[in-house]
Amino acid sequence: VLGIALLVTQWKKVDIKSAWRLLLATVPGIPLGTMLLRGDYQRMGEIVLALIIIGFSGYSLFKPRLIEPIKEWLAYPFGFLAGILGGAYNSNGPPVIIYGTLRRWAPDEFRATLQSYFLPSSVIIVAGHGLGGLWTYEVCTYFFLSLPLTLFAIWSGGRLQRLIPPGRFDRWIH
User: Fold this and answer.
1) 3-state class (DSSP) for residue 69
2) Residue 142 has what pLDDT?
3) How far, in Å, CA of 84 to CA of 8, rounded?
4) pTM for the structure as a whole
5) Is the pLDDT of residue 41 over 90?
6) Which secondary-structure segment (H or E) carries 171?
């Protein structure tokens, strides 16, 4: 609900082309990620996810500057990798955050575009997990127990984001 409210109020700030490209490339990656989760390669996937997060956070903290933002077409490989990680670990965020950072989106554009991507991609990932037989009583219980805190985090994150000076936003996110 809060995600939809954010999109309704900030839809003008969404980079629509990038959001669609990311989402389009994510969809075929989700079943691959779900197979990875259920297959013999789970450990390898966890290592790849950890290396992506650690590597890009280190890169961002040292702040090497690109001459210009990366090209829009790179949304496709970033989105595909996000789909694999989302299907396997529900962690489609790191590649998409890396893409947004390298595109040099302003904080409002960053938040609005990510929300416009995460809302539909999360629905697709959850449906893929259901079709893949990954919904269990235990998973559903933990989901409903975490829901109030998740909604609070989304709400408070929106409030806190407005307090962060634009020059510090990138550094703090990493």
Assistant:
1) coil
2) 94
3) 29
4) 0.76
5) no
6) helix 166-173
